[in-house]
């Protein structure tokens, strides 16, 4: 419905999530599927914040409530709707729904994992956080919450690395290729 680099990105996020989940004792299949479908709201077309709610609604309609949750949480390393960097292309009711959802949800390991993996993979493969942050900032610009979002993502990285006992970069094949892209 909407071909684009988000599909390769999603496949790479899925792979990163599966690998990290395996080393953390999480459910690898759940991690893979959450990664694969976190951006599924983009099936509807080129949208900004709306891809979050479109993904949530699509997954709920399929009965995939765990996926729906990740469709919504993955864009919010900082758990606040105003901390998103995309254009607010949603209705007032959708805004209120996301605001309330973020207010009440406690992030679990899968929420944290997909937020992290979203920043560890682009359409070409795996990449270091710094590269992805600069890439996103070049595309969307700098926002008041940008550094808070980066810092929170580094915290999630540190959280999983503490469990694994080494850098997650050592687990992601060919990540050094991101330097030469
Ligand atoms: Fe993504």
Structural class of the secondary elements?
mainly alpha
Characterize the overall form.
Answer: globular
Number of strands: 0
In helices, the fraction of residues equals 55-70%
Described by its quaternary structure, the protein is: single chain
Taken in chain order, the helices and strands follow as: HHHHHHHH
Question: If you average the pLDDT, what whole number results?
Answer: 96
Listed once per kind, the bound small molecules are: fe (ii) ion
- How many H/I helices? 8
Q: Strand share of the residues?
A: under 5%
Unreliable stretches covering 5 or more consecutive residues: none
First-to-last CA distance? 28 Å
Largest sheet properties: none
Question: What does the model show?
Answer:
The chain is mainly alpha-helical and 181 residues long. The chain has one domain (5-179). It is 59% helix and 0% strand. The protein has helices at 5-24, 28-37, 50-62, 65-73, 92-104, 109-118, 129-140, 146-164. The model has no long low-confidence stretch (mean pLDDT 96). The protein binds fe (ii) ion. The site of fe (ii) ion has 5 residues, from helix 1. Fe (ii) ion is lined by residues 9, 13, 38-39, 118.
